[in-house]
Amino acid sequence: MIFKAKGLVRASSTTIQPLSSHMLRLLLLCVVFLFLTVSEAGCNHQDQESLLWFSGNVSSSVSPLNWNPSIDCCAWEEITCDDSSSSHITAIYLPFRRLKGKLPLAVLKLHHLSQLNLSHNHLSGPLPLDFLSSLDQLTVLDLSYNSFTGTIPSFMCLSSPQLSTLDFSYNDFSGHIPRGLGRCLRLSVLRAGFNHLSGEIPRDIYNLSKLEKLVLPANHLSGKIGDDITKLRKLTSLKLYSNNLQGDIPKDIGKLSSLQTLQLHTNNITGTVPLSLANCTNLVKLNLRKNRLEGTLSELDFSRFPRLSILDLGNNSFSGEFPWRVHSCKSLTAMRFASNKLTGQVSPQVLELESLSFLSLSDNKLTNITGALSILQGCRNLSTLLIGKNFYNETFPSDRDLISPDGFANLRIFASGGCGLRGEIPAWLIKLKSLAVMDLSHNQLVGSIPGWLGTLPHLFYIDISDNLLSGELPKELFQLRALMFRKGYDATERNNLKLPVYINPNNLTAHYQYNQLSSLPPAIYIRRNNLKGSIPVEAGQLKALHALELSHNCLSGSIPDELSNLTNLERLDLSNNNLSGRIPWSLTRLHFMSYFNVANNTLQGPIPTGSQFDTFPRAHFEGNSLLFGGVLLNSCPAPTQSPATTTDEEKLTRIFTVAVATGFSLTFTLVILVLNCYVDMI
After folding, report:
1. Residue 547 near residue 521 (C-beta atoms within 8 A)
2. Domain containing residue 317
């Protein structure tokens, strides 16, 4: 050794002496004692047995629980133990494991468990009635995205509730929200949406002063939203949509000044929007759509919502002048005022909303479509524009110069249907190179369908039904690049829309909801016009097409055999035209087709059989007097010429065709042929 002291350096003569046998024995005893101590500090035996029982009663073909009983359970995956000498299990974290089975009762023996996450699995069955009272140390419980049934266990027996997070959402729970939740004074998150819960929201929930998220959507909850909800001053998210709630919005809702998300849509809420709502200055998302709200919106101070990004007040009964003060919400990216009774014209102030990408004003009483389009083309980020059912009986501006070269540069969805607009299909549409969805239906448009529609590179959804269009179907329309190649449609934007769009393409009572642009079906709807001529064979090129509806026109000629190339087609409606010839047998290869209608034409010959053709209703073939077989189950039609001029060969061919088309055996067919010849000879 080298020592340094007071500037002097000298070598140490110290040497290491070997340990005596007595010291070795003492050291060995210490090691053994330490090993025994560590062994005794392992996983609690009863907890380990409970976990093994748990793993033995659930299964997963993808991610099974490979818990080895010979290994300390505190070392098992997704298991956490405390630091005490008894090493009790305190946390189980097993989401997204595709676990199947019922929740084993052995879990109830884990009395020190504080966190249990079994979300996103396939667990089923009811929870034990004493589930929560047995696990009275729980702080976090997440059972969301499973298939649990029965009622949510009561909270009344909890002695000292420690719960901070409860998530029962996306299951099959029924019954009322249990009493006793108000005793969980530490609760900050309560989620139980997308179940079958009924009854009123328990009043004791309004005593949870630390609650930040109350999320109970898509149930069958009824009654009013209690005025005491304003006591939840820390609430940042209130989601009660898609229930049966009634009554008014609490007039002092503005006391929830921390609120960032308020979603009360799809209920039966009545009254007006409380002016105190303007005190919720932290709002980012406000959705009151599809209620029974009324009154004017002009008095609501929208300037108090500097952070508001999503605003949906559609499907109510708001009246009066459109609340253009909404343009003071500079952070808006999406707003919907559709299906109200608002009047006025689109204001240039809308250009102040530089981030606006979604705008729905449809089904109101707005006027001056020319002015609206001239202004709105300046919204540079606008991707969805829904203005249908306004501007009644005005003239659709068709001047190509109405839209500047960079106008509507990012517009993907444009809908102006149901306005009764006069004129022709606007020439300026050719400038909308980003357009993917176009709805001009239910207007009074005349003239022919322009072939240049087929040059729009992203267009995959066209609805120009219920107009007065004439002429022939242009071949160019069936050269849409986004419909010719599956990869072209697959390139459609997959991001969620800022707000969902609702479409009713077949005049049904129900509307289909679409949350993504790519979710809309690739379709061409040209029903109820005055088109004539034949169906172009080029229609067979649109291999990505899901729906083709050409009914109620004056189309003639035969059904092109090329339509059998539309291997993704789900819906084909050619009814109420003047089509002739046979139904191509090759259409039986369209295995995705669930709707087929050729009623009221002049088709003839056998109806194809096999595949889904055996499931189409009889009514979809009626009105064609020379069609037979298949679902019509009738013999061949009466001959158009007298029997004296019909050759024996024609008779035999007709009988053979009918027999095969209606499924008779070959032997029976031969018998028919022989009998027919015998009768002729007599």
Report:
1. yes
2. 223-334
In this structure, the answer to whether residues 145 and 237 fall within a common structural domain is: no
485: tokens are 């190649």
Q: Where are the beta strands (DSSP E) in 159-309?
A: 165-167, 174-176, 189-191, 196-199, 213-215, 220-224, 237-239, 244-246, 261-263, 270-271, 285-287, 292-295
Contacts with 674 (C-beta within 8 Å, 6 or more apart), sequence order: none
Length of the chain: 682
**Structure letter (DSSP) for residue 178:** P
Same domain, 55 and 178: yes
Matching residue, tokens 């517009």? 411
CA-wise closest residue to 565 among 486, 482, 621, 487? 486
Q: What is the pLDDT of residues 89-115, one digit of tens each?
A: 999 999 999 999 999 888 999 999 999
| Full 3-state SS string of 72-86 | CHHHCCCEEECCCCC
Q: Which of 316, 334, 352 is the last residue of a domain?
A: 334
Q: Are residues 92 and 181 in the same domain?
A: yes
End-to-end CA distance of the chain: 135
Tokens 């298949």 sit at which residue?
630
Average per-residue pLDDT in the chain?
Answer: 87
Instruction: Record the tokens describing residue 266, joined without a space.
Output: 């799809």
Q: Are residues 227 and 169 in the same domain?
A: no
Over the Cα atoms of the chain, what is R_g? 36
Identify whether the C-beta of residue 184 lies closer than 8 Å to the C-beta of residue 207.
Answer: no
How do beta strands 174-176 and 147-149 pair? Answer: unpaired
- Whether residue 85 sits in one domain with residue 157: yes
Q: What is the Cα–Cα distance from 584 to 564, expressed in whole angstroms?
A: 8
70 and 188, same domain (yes or no): yes
State both tokens at 349. Answer: 């102030």
56 three-state secondary structure: helix
Tally the C-alpha atoms within 13 A of residue 163's C-alpha that lie toward its C-beta: 25
Number of domains in the chain: 2
Same domain flag for 85 and 136: yes
Which residues lie closer than 8 Å to 207 by C-beta, 6 or more apart? 182, 185, 231
Show the CA angle centred on residue 193, arms to residues 238 and 116, nearest 5°.
105
Q: Alpha helix locations (H) across 464-523?
A: 481-484, 486-490
Q: Are residues 183 and 326 in the same domain?
A: no
Question: What are the tokens at 200?
Answer: 């009123």
Q: Is residue 576 part of a domain?
A: no
Which amino acid does the sequence have at 630? G
Write the pLDDT tens digit of every residue in 47-84: 999 999 999 999 998 888 889 888 999 999 999 999 87
Query: Is pLDDT at 487 greater than 70 in this prediction?
Result: no
